[in-house]
Write a structure and sequence with these properties.
Layout lengths: L1 H7 L7 H13 L13 H11 L5 H20 L9 H11 L15 H14 L1 H13 L3 H6 L5 E2 L4 E4 L10 E4 L2 H9 L18 H14 L9 H12 L4 H8 L4 H4 L7 H26 L1
Antiparallel strand pairs: 1-2, 2-3
């Protein structure tokens, strides 16, 4: 069934080449792979988890089993097999109750000014195109896959915005992204290869994984710890909120479906919050002083 699921369902997913192909390959090698649809039980998942969770985090384990869970649902909903309890979901529930899968704390990693300076100096001469992608990510909050799929026809230079078609967004919903001056400058400074047209990729990197690897190598060379490309999206969103955009405006740019999914990306620093409080206090004191002078 897993082979059929891969051919008919998984291969059409946007994440297939990026991750799901590898994940399904690992599932084929799992101890429970030899059991049929009717034989697979939650205990097989629990037994597998008791070993696998010593190697990877709980969130990674859940993602790893996601294709199998989806396949079990697809089997009775689409293929007409008898409905059975979802062994993956039940097994994960048991592992959570036993404390083997713990709820991960929301990631709040931000890019510091010092790290940005170090990456700029590292990439400026060694890999300027990756530097452009990095800077563009911070300015737009776009996902790595979205940036890699951008074509020149998606850039409306006259209006200063990007028009992302639904086939390149994670949510499969088209969206318009207003660009900052710096983001527009990056695009306008990007050299088009000879023979390019409106369907040419802007940054010339069709594979998001290649961008991820280049970014990780630069991070390692700079001695920066625990920084991922996706953290640039956190940085962009946190900056927008700091600078006064409403959550509705941020969601318009970022493409989040709801505020609940946006909240983990809003990560103000201690200094930013304190700065706002001090600024509020200063303005309040100034207002009280003016009102006092008026009364006298």
């Amino acid at each position: 069934l897993l082979d059929t699921y891969e051919d008919e369902v998984a291969a059409d997913k946007k994440c297939y080449l990026k991750s799901e192909k590898y994940t399904i390959g690992r599932l084929r090698a799992a101890p429970f792979a030899g059991y049929s649809y009717n034989e697979l039980s939650h205990q097989h998942i629990v037994d597998y988890g008791s070993v696998r969770l010593k190697e990877i985090a709980g969130s990674s384990f859940v993602r790893e089993l996601s294709p199998l869970s989806d396949m079990l649902e697809h089997a009775w909903q689409i293929w007409g097999l008898p409905r059975r309890p979802n062994a993956v979901r039940d097994g994960i529930k048991i592992l959570r109750k036993r404390g083997l899968i713990k709820k991960a704390a929301p990631r709040d990693r931000r890019l510091t000014d010092g790290e940005m300076d170090a990456l700029y100096l590292e990439l400026k001469t060694k890999n300027p195109r990756i530097l452009d992608i990095l800077l563009f990510g911070v300015e737009t909050g776009m996902r790595r896959g979205e940036i890699c799929k951008l074509k020149w026809k998606d850039f409306d230079a006259e209006r200063g915005c990007l028009v992302l078609p639904d086939e390149i967004t994670k949510s499969n919903v088209a969206r318009r992204i207003p660009l900052t001056l710096r983001a527009s400058l990056i695009l306008n400074a990007t050299k088009k290869p000879r023979g390019s047209n409106s369907n040419t990729l802007i940054f010339g990197y069709p594979d998001p994984n290649a961008v991820g690897k280049a970014f990780r190598r630069a991070v390692q060379r700079c001695g920066i710890e625990d920084l991922r490309f996706h953290d640039l999206r956190h940085e962009a969103i946190s900056r927008w909120i700091r600078d006064g955009l409403s959550l509705a405006e941020v969601r318009y740019i970022s493409g989040h479906k709801n505020l609940a999914s946006l909240n983990p990306y809003a990560n103000p620093t201690y200094e930013e919050v304190q700065g706002k409080l001090l600024d509020m206090e200063s303005r309040r004191a100034a207002k009280e002083e003016v009102e006092g002078d008026t009364l006298h």
